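Here comes just one.
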Amino acid sequence: MTNGVRLKVKKLVEQAKLPRYAHVGEYGDLAADLYASEGLILEPGSTMAVPTGIAMEFPSTHGALVEDRSGLALRGLTTLAGVIDPGYRGEIRVVVTNLGAAAMELKTGDRIAQLRIVHRIQAEFEEVAELGDATRGAGGFGSTGAR
């Protein structure tokens, strides 16, 4: 089941895996899994760009966001800088940081992140002197009472 968006994926190394949805259909996954194309060890506090061994071709109407995998995030592995623009054709690398207290080993073929395909919207930004009123107003973190 697709919504008509077909993405071309080029394997840059033999052991690379194409992105894959673990659950498909009416209540399927929001994002596809991305896989490490080589093994490495992330020391506590370190940040690395993990290769996936793939490059993708997006239509001009779409791009992607790279998101955490919840199980890895719970262990301290979080993703950073995860925007893939439609015109980018290079290798997809996942920037990760190990926030945990122990080294984390990633093996070739491990699921390391999720790829969420997004529709590209190009907004116009208009400078104004005042903004309209809204119920929330300028309330930020913790303004809803959830802390």
User: Anything to note?
Assistant: Residues 64 and 117 are 4 Å apart (CA to CA).
